[in-house]
Amino acid sequence: MPSGQILLADDDAAIRTVLNQALSRAGYEVRSSSNAATLWRWVSQGEGDLVITDVMMPDENAFDLLPRIKKIRPDLPIIVMSAQNTFMTAIKASERGAYEYLPKPFDLKELVAVVGRALSRPRSVPTGAHPAPENEDIPLVGRSQAMQEIYRALARLMPTDLTVMITGESGTGKELVAKALHDYGKRRQGPFVAVNMAAIPRELIESELFGHEKGAFTGATARSTGRFEQAEGGTLFLDEIGDMPMEAQTRLLRVLQQGEYTTVGGRVPIKTHVRIVAATNKDLRVLIQQGLFREDLYFRLNVVPLRLPPLRERVEDIPDLVRHFFVLVEKEGLGRKQLDVEAMDRLKRYRWPGNVRELENLVRRLAALYPQDTITGAIVDAELDSQPLLPQQPAGKSSQPALQASEGLSDAVERHLNEYFSGFRDSLPPPGLYHRILREIEGPLIGAALAATRGNQIRAAELLGVNRNTLRKKVRDLDLMVVRSNRA
């Protein structure tokens, strides 16, 4: 049976009651208060084995109280709760020395599990926190559950140098996340260097990354520094890593393994101290099967995977994003705008194949082209130009050509395969086509079944006609995200 005294502070009596009951059932002694002053008195008197506190207290902000607590009792774990649910809330909780940040509402079982982990951890573990800039012009916007998971993951990663692999569709904000990892992390004093692999000619990638010596190749009239050297002491962001040619992948793997590199045409190894953050909108596992990406490099880069959700999976964030972009364009000199209810509904129903980037571009168009202070649904309809809305397509599909009216699934697959084979002209696709095609079909099918049953795997297995254990294995193998709902 677990044991320990929990000091709980929240000015909401109902929340205190619920948390008190849940923690007491788990075997903990709980002392609760509605203000920060009482919490501080208990802590300063040496009471409590763990603190749970809301950020917004009637007499003091918890973020101001946390440094004082950590100063007199550095080993006391603190769990911070907040209904603000922004990126900066998670980051500030981490910076002030919180053991964990939980956005409200949260699952009580999760809270009890976090408490158990916090009380069982070794003492005198340094937080590694570094004060971040006080700039409230936050880089990431959204309060959806999907974004809360991203914020919490980022807060844990800030004090580390772990390699991160960011995946997500185009326009989901992969570079923004990489930049946030740098700007609020331990390497913020160093440079942030971004390189887009898809934008560099294949023959120049090694020179771009590692630099070259004078005379290394035709046209090399002087020594040139590479991106690794430019990023020394900071962060190197490798965007579109799936487009890196195999020969460059081999050199990158060697750098990651040995911590040193040589310039093109050079002979003296150069030590490197950079944090690597990679990103891609491709499925690297498919590229591995096709022989286009090294499996050992994938595991080197995929130390901490972060999947950014497409905008259609976080439509509840659209109002916050719209307001954020309108504020930005207003700062740039355009008039203040807002959307009416109908216009916002249109945006929530749109598929957003270009994700957040497409939404930002739309907001900028609306602000620049229309004199009205309030943008109507008719205006949004005209700008979206009759693009498909969410109810008209199965969720989770990207902006691919729609099925023809009389075309069945078999005909559509056949048309797609004909186009696929024709792209290779006189050659053939890479081996393993059968399993790649089945995987591509399985993923959307299982994803659609899970979405239709609101993440209930028992009902999804029944709908698909497969064993529940088989479904679980497929979800794991295909790396599908299961979003559960109590309404299922």
Automatic annotation (TrEMBL):
Protein's organism: Microvirga arabica
InterPro entries: AAA+_ATPase (IPR003593), AAA_lid_NorR (IPR058031), CheY-like_superfamily (IPR011006), Homeodomain-like_sf (IPR009057), HTH_Fis (IPR002197), P-loop_NTPase (IPR027417), Sig_transdc_resp-reg_receiver (IPR001789), Sigma_54_int (IPR002078)
Matching PANTHER family: DNA-BINDING TRANSCRIPTIONAL REGULATOR NTRC, TRANSCRIPTIONAL REGULATORY PROTEIN
CDD domains attached to this UniProt entry: AAA, REC_RcNtrC-like
The keyword Cytoplasm is annotated on this UniProt entry: yes
Entry's transmembrane regions: none
NCBIfam families, alphabetized: ntrC
Modified residue annotations for 4-aspartylphosphate: D54
Keyword set, alphabetical order: Activator, ATP-binding, Cytoplasm, DNA-binding, Nitrogen fixation, Nucleotide-binding, Phosphoprotein, Repressor, Transcription, Transcription regulation, Two-component regulatory system
Subcellular location: Cytoplasm
Region annotation (Disordered) ranges: 389-408
Name of the molecule in the record: DNA-binding transcriptional regulator NtrC
Job of this protein: Member of the two-component regulatory system NtrB/NtrC, which controls expression of the nitrogen-regulated (ntr) genes in response to nitrogen limitation. Phosphorylated NtrC binds directly to DNA and stimulates the formation of open promoter-sigma54-RNA polymerase complexes.
Domain Response regulatory: 5-119
Signal peptide boundaries: none
Domain Sigma-54 factor interaction: 140-368
PROSITE patterns: RESPONSE_REGULATORY, SIGMA54_INTERACT_1, SIGMA54_INTERACT_2, SIGMA54_INTERACT_3, SIGMA54_INTERACT_4
